[in-house]
Amino acid sequence: MTNLFAYRTVFIFLFTLSWLFPQMSYSVEPIMPRADLQQAQSWGNRQPTFSELDKNGDNLISREEAKQWDSLNKNFASVDQDQNSKIDQSEFSDFETKKIKESIKDFIKN
Question: Are 41 and 52 found together in one domain?
Fold first, then answer.
């Protein structure tokens, strides 16, 4: 049980890093046995990055672009803090931080 907790902790850490620094590649394979890695990966799926959602490259996410991620689309009005019908990098980061905190709370409960 302790090893699984340690593996999940490492996975959460690397998962968070992949959101914050999407251009870098992270791998837990050298430190995690394959079975535990698969179990940890099934715990959460990677969400799209800002640049993946920003299809037209204007450094803003429109309502149409937000439809690629259901959670962002459903919460678009609250994420768009300045109510300009676009989500900028700062607003997106705030939303991701909130999602990460919720995921960690759910993880700790289980």
Answer: no
Residue with tokens 């099934």: 42
User: Are the beta carbons of 43 and 32 closer than 8 angstroms?
Assistant: no
Torsion angle of the four alpha carbons 86, 91, 92, 95, in this order, in degrees rounded to the nearest 10: -120
Q: How many angstroms separate the CA atoms of 75 and 36, rounded?
A: 33
Range of the structural domain that residue 80 is part of: 47-110
Reduced to 3 states, what is the DSSP secondary structure of residue 24? coil
Dihedral sign of CA atoms 25, 28, 31, 33 in order: negative
pTM greater than 0.85 (yes/no):
no
Query: pLDDT tens-digit profile of 17-70?
Result: 666 665 555 454 455 455 444 555 555 567 888 999 999 999 999 999 999 999
